Amino acid sequence: MRGLDQLFERSSRSLAQRSSRRSVLGSLGQLLTGAALLPLLPIDRSGRARASEAPPGPDSPESCQYWRYCAIDGYLCSCCGGSSTSCPPGTSSSPITWIGTCHNPHDQRDYIVSYNDCCGKTSCGNCECVRNEREKPMYRASRNNDLNWCMANADSNYHCTVSVILGVAEK
Ligand code: ABN
């Protein structure tokens, strides 16, 4: 026990020799100021707010199950500041698109749908939706939708995808 006392005494004396009262008070002040400012830092609570929201139903354009999205592969523009049919501000629609045929359960008709990518901003990242009904594997390149359709745009950055009805599919 005496050994331990001596060890503490020696290390306390050496610390006292190496530090002034002013520097100890300075460090203590910094520590207290930091601790007092900690509750003022911004906290992102949006994740918790979103988690408590009910998921969108299948008739919502923000749901991947929405009937028009049957052959989509991308982020839904309706979750990215646009809508299911219009690109978000600051982006422009791709002139080359992927075409699908989707069944509308409300009128029992099939519709031809164009999936245009919206280009000119980095990836939106919200509401990823990959359904690709009737798509063929990558080795059938002309029948595969795993492509950035912004490739021909001046700014080929892919942001999100819209789905535009082109017409009723003939039987
Ligand atoms: N058509 C959307 C997309 C963009 C980049 C890569 C794959 C799919």
Description:
By secondary structure, the protein is an alpha+beta fold. It has three helices and six strands; from the N terminus they run αααββββββ. The strands form two sheets. Strands 2, 3, 4 and 6 form a four-stranded antiparallel β-sheet that branches. It has a two-stranded antiparallel sheet with strand order 1-5. The protein is elongated, with a radius of gyration of 30 Å. Residues 73-74, 117, 146-149, 158, 161 line the site of benzylamine (ABN).
Secondary structure: elements and pairs:
Blueprint: H1 2-18, H2 21-37, H3 46-52, E1 73-75, E2 92-93, E3 98-104, E4 109-119, E5 128-130, E6 158-168
Antiparallel strand pairs: 1-5, 2-4, 3-4, 4-6
The chain binds benzylamine.
Brief overview:
This protein is of the alpha+beta class.
Please count the beta strands (DSSP E, at least 2 residues each): 6
* Structural class by helix and strand composition: alpha+beta
Rough outline: elongated
Mean pLDDT: 88
Bound molecules: benzylamine
Low-pLDDT ranges: none
Q: What is the N-to-C succession of helices and strands?
A: HHHEEEEEE
Q: What percentage of the residues does DSSP assign to strands (E)?
A: 15-25%
Q: Compute the number of helices.
A: 3
**Rg from alpha-carbon coordinates:** 30 Å
Distance between the termini: 95 Å
- Biggest sheet record: 4 strands, antiparallel
Helix content: 10-25%
